[in-house]
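Hi there,

I know you've been waiting on this one. I reran it after we fixed the sequence typo, so this is the corrected version. Both the input and the resulting structure follow.
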Amino acid sequence: MDGTILYIHGRGGSAGEAARYRALCPGNRVLGLDYHGTTPWETREEILAAYDGLRRRDRDIIVAANSIGAYFAMNALQGKEISRALFVSPILDMEELICALLRRSGLSEAALAEKREIETPFGETLSWDYLCYVRAHPIVWTAPTCILRGERDDMTSRGTVQAFAERHGAEVTVLPGGEHWFHTEEQMAFHDAWVRRCLAAADDGRGTF
C-alpha cells in the first residue's frame, strides 16, 4: 500500500523505532512522531498536528502504533481519514486497564477520586482526571485495522481484543507464546512478516490475509 506511515510509539519507546518501517516499506514515506505528552489530551494535539501536516502532502495516511500509542492514536484520529491502521500489542480499552490496575493495587475509585493521583506498588501513577477523560471520550474507530498481539499479553486480554475486533471489524493475528513486548529476533521476524502481509492485503483489496 502506497502512502505515508505515521508511527506512534508506546511508553518508553521513541520515534526512532520508525526506522524499522522504513526498511520494511521502502515505497512509503515514514514519519516517527516524537511526542512529548503523557496524557490523551496532550498527545491528541501532537498527533493531530502531525496528521494534518502529512495530509497536506499525501491523501493516504497509514497509522502504525505500539501499545499505548494505539490508544493515543485512536483518541486523536477517530473520524479522520486513515487508509489503514497497524496496531502492535495495543491498549484498546483504557478504562478497563485503569480499573484493573486499581483492583490489583487494592484501591477503589472513591480513593482515587479523593486523592486525584495515587502511586501504585508496581510503579504506575493512576490519575482521576485521566480516568474521567477516558470515560468522557469513548473511542469510535472506523479505520481498517490489523492487530498483532502476543498470546500472553497481560496488558490487554484476549477477550478485550476480540470484542474490539468484533465491534470495529479489525483483523487479529496472535503470536503463540508472545508477550506484550515484541523484542526477540524471532518475534520481530514475525512482526515484520505481519506488516508486509497487512499492507499487501490492503493493496489487493482484501480484508484478510
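Quick highlight: The mean pLDDT is 94.

Best,
R. S.
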